[in-house]
Amino acid sequence: MRTIEEYMALPYRMEIVPDVEEGGFTAWYPDLPGCLTCAETLEGVIANAQDAKRAWLEAALAEGTEIVEPSREMVPSDYSGQFKLRLPRSLHRSLSMHARQEGISMNQYCLYLLAKNDAGYIPQKGRA
Question: What are the residue boundaries of the structural domains of the chain, listed by start?
Answer without folding.
Answer: 1-79, 80-121
